[in-house]
Amino acid sequence: TGTTTANVKGNWDVAGDVNVTAENKETFDLDTDTASASIAGGSGGGLSKNVTQAAHVNLDGAAVTTAGAQTVRAENVLNDASSMASAGYGFLGSTDATKLSASGTYTGDVSLTGATLTANGGGSTVTAATTGTHTTDNDINAGSIGVDEAVATTTNNLTYKNAVTLDGASVKTNGSTAGDVALAAYDATEASDTILADSEGVIAAVVT
């Protein structure tokens, strides 16, 4: 669980640019391998993770004037990989199984309630985002005639909550070098899930 918060209060008059950022960078490289520990009659393994990350930026009531650009950003960056490998062998009536579970809640929010942001050169960009990659790989290899089932189960439950709030706010750019005002709440994540139940002489191979 991680929470990062950036608070800006009062009046600011800056000769250059202003960058206000709350960012969580998450990296998981989880690997479980029970293949070498398989036993007759019922082998398997399990891997689970549950993560909560929050990035908050609060400029409520603040007045920020810059000669340059303004950037306000709350972001969670994912770089996650989970791998589960297992093997089994046995006899009629046995089941070999793997279970991989990955859960996470990611919150990015920017609050500008009652704030005044004025960029007199360059643009003004306000974003709340979740970005990055999330991969899972769940493999089971079962052999020997008579094993009833080889089952590989993967569950992914990822929740993204990104928001930009501008209740009563003023965000503007001025001057001959003024840029655009950009406001965005979004997620740009790439998910990759691989599930394999490989059987040799197994009555049933199941992936879920």
In short:
The protein has strands at residues 2-7, 11-14, 18-33, 44-58, 63-66, 70-89, 95-111, 116-119, 122-143, 149-165, 170-173, 178-200, 204-207.
What does this structure look like?
By secondary structure, this protein is mainly beta. The chain contains no helices and 13 strands. The strands form three sheets. The chain has a five-stranded parallel beta sheet, with no helix packed on it. It has a four-stranded parallel beta sheet with strand order 2-5-8-11, with no helix packed on it. Strands 3-6-9-12 form a four-stranded parallel beta sheet, with no helix packed on it. The protein is elongated and about 70 Å long. 35% of the residues are buried.
How far apart lie the N and C ends? 28 Å
Radius of gyration: 25 Å
Strand tally is 13
Please state roughly what percent of the residues sit in beta strands, choosing from under 5%, 5-15%, 15-25%, 25-35%, 35-45% or over 45%.
over 45%
Report the mean per-residue pLDDT as an integer. 84
Please bin the fraction of helical residues: under 10%
Instruction: Return the string of H and E elements.
Output: EEEEEEEEEEEEE
Strand order of the largest sheet: 1-4-7-10-13
Largest sheet: 5 strands, parallel
Strand-pairing-aware structural class = mainly beta
Global shape: elongated
> Which spans of ≥5 residues are poorly predicted at pLDDT below 50?
none
Number of helices: 0
